[in-house]
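Weekly sync, protein design subgroup
Attendees: M.S., D.O., the rotation student, P.L. (late)

Item 1: inverse folding check
M.S. brought a backbone from last month's batch and wanted to see whether the design step gives back something sensible before we order anything. D.O. pointed out we never logged the input encoding, so this time it goes straight into the notes. C-alpha cells as presented (147 positions):
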C-alpha cells in the first residue's frame, strides 16, 4: 500500500458542514446551500455529520464505518463518498480513496473532488489522469464546466 500524500491545510474535507485536516485541526464551514447542523430527521445526514466528527478527530476507522452507514441509507450521497475517500487517503489506501472519489463524481461534480483525485492519481503514478483532473477542476472553477 502506498503512503498517503501529505494533506495541505487547504486540502481539507471537501463537502459537508465540518472539515478536518490530516493533523486533526478543524474549522467549521457552511456551504451556501447547506446548513451547519444535521437534519435530525435524516439518518444519512446524521451519519455524514458523525463521520465528519470522527474524521476531525483522526479516527479513520470510525469515520469509514460511519460513512458506510450514511451510504447504506442514501447510496447517492456524494459527500459521504468524498469524505470516506479522505479517510482512506489518510490511511494510505489510495486505491480505495480514488474509487470513492470516482463514485462521488458520478453523483456530484466538484472542483474539489477533481483536485483531490488529481493528487491521488499523481501519487499513484498516473500523471496523465492527474493533469486531466486538474484541468477539469480549473474548468469548473472558471464556470466553463457547468452545463
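Designed sequence read out in the meeting:
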Amino acid at each position: 500500500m502506498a503512503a498517503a500524500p501529505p494533506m495541505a491545510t487547504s486540502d481539507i474535507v471537501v463537502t459537508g458542514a465540518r472539515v478536518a485536516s490530516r493533523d486533526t485541526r478543524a474549522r467549521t464551514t457552511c456551504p451556501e446551500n447547506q446548513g451547519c447542523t444535521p437534519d435530525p430527521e435524516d439518518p444519512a445526514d446524521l451519519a455524514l455529520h458523525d463521520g465528519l466528527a470522527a474524521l476531525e478527530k483522526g479516527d479513520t476507522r470510525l469515520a469509514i464505518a460511519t460513512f458506510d452507514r450514511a451510504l447504506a441509507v442514501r447510496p447517492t450521497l456524494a459527500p459521504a463518498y468524498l469524505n470516506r475517500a479522505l479517510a482512506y487517503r489518510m490511511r494510505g489506501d489510495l486505491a480505495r480513496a480514488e474509487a470513492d472519489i470516482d463514485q462521488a463524481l458520478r453523483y456530484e461534480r466538484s472542483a474539489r473532488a477533481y483536485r483531490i483525485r488529481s493528487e491521488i492519481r499523481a501519487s499513484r503514478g498516473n500523471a496523465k489522469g492527474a493533469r486531466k483532473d486538474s484541468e477539469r477542476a480549473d474548468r469548473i472553477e472558471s464556470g466553463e464546466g457547468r452545463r
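Discussion: The two ends are 38 Å apart (CA to CA). Strands lie at 18-20, 26-28.
Action: P.L. to compare against the previous round before Friday.
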